[in-house]
Design goal:
HAD_sf (chains A, B); five-stranded parallel beta sheet; storage protein (chains A, B); HAD-like_sf (chains A, B); Rossmann fold; homodimer; glycoprotein (chains A, B); nutrient reservoir activity (chains A, B); 10 helices; alpha/beta
Amino acid sequence: MTFSRSSSITFFILALFAVLINPAISSRASSFTKPPLSSIASYCESWRLAAETNNAGTWKVVPSQCENYVKNYISEGQFDKDYDLVASYAIAYAKTVKLGRDGKDAWVFDIDETLLSNIEYYKAHGYGSQPYDNTLFNEWVVKGTAPGFDASLRLYKALKKLGFTIILLTGRDESQRSITEKNLRDAGYFGWNRLLLRGKNDQGKAATLYKSEQRSKVVKEGYTIHGNTGDQWSDLQGFAVAARSFKVPNPMYYIP
Amino acid sequence: MTFSRSSSITFFILALFAVLINPAISSRASSFTKPPLSSIASYCESWRLAAETNNAGTWKVVPSQCENYVKNYISEGQFDKDYDLVASYAIAYAKTVKLGRDGKDAWVFDIDETLLSNIEYYKAHGYGSQPYDNTLFNEWVVKGTAPGFDASLRLYKALKKLGFTIILLTGRDESQRSITEKNLRDAGYFGWNRLLLRGKNDQGKAATLYKSEQRSKVVKEGYTIHGNTGDQWSDLQGFAVAARSFKVPNPMYYIP
């Protein structure tokens, strides 16, 4: 194979340019390892890990420099893979639980960002980089069009098949009961034992306390809460906690 | 600038080769976003997040396909950045604590992979992909040469300066007291209130129970445990838990 001088120079420049601008080509260089990250991406990696492990404490918005990072994390599939692996660990654990015949073996699910995805809403609001707007968010909720996550549907169906009693426990208001039930059914969920929403006496309560109180009532009825799935630590901590808790990823918002 | 035909071809091939084998060059292509990951790296990302959030439950070894991923995560600096951000969150929180004058404002630290790094040991043992060997690990411990982490030294010194009483609580055996104290001092730590190690009555106890019991005694002495820092969930959970817990990264091993 021979090159003329000018065509070889042109080809060299074009090839180098293609490699430099195309991450799909350049990432081939390290197919088994992670390529080094920019300092912003690297900071946002650390931030997301700190948020997911509850090290960041209460945070109001995604750091502005991480909006694009969160967008890519969600839209390019790593978010789904992360959720999917949590679902697999939850199913593997659920299969080890020996269920009684009294229907008292319970599994608790949160709803928003656990069973139903509001990503479409957050996509239009900076992926969590804009402050939470209660009015706008509730306008979205009452549309009742939130889809399920593939991973949560897989987990939910597996637990139903194994015979767990499903308890839904959400920070949504009692006034949103019908639309929430319809949305859940449309998204593919079915056969839950009960849907617990915030009533009059729960207004203004911190999520951890409200959810702990609700779980506590369930336990007092004789249920064993084997598992709990939520995207917030306030879904999982407090008292009457489950034997195993599964924190599903949510890099968009934090509820104390 | 002109090229001879042969030198231009040679240069083109060398340049292309350099770009393809060098992730530092190829990653320039996407300085603000994360380049796409290989499916192995993507799985290992999900696995590490699941491990750090305690979703993976008890695990014995790093998945074999993730050995290289964990090696790179640690050796290429993301691990240090992740720990550093946790330290920053811990310091920010510590500054909000109003300390009394009675010296009863406590902060608990675990030792291994929290204050002292055994990464040199794990580097020689597959970064956690080989089963834990108690004999070999203890041979390493009694050398007493484990360094501190930059982030843990920064956090420790900041807490000392703020006036916290430091309590060290480790799963190491009482027989390793002297070498542990010497190692800690050599690594730059100083002025702790006490070092709690596993005594005769603690043998065989699960880490969560042993550590909860020890914290409980501290609380009964009148201390308030404002913060707790550990690389294991068993350092942080159970009873007599701290007001805020900080889970520092450790993708190499899990202690139930």
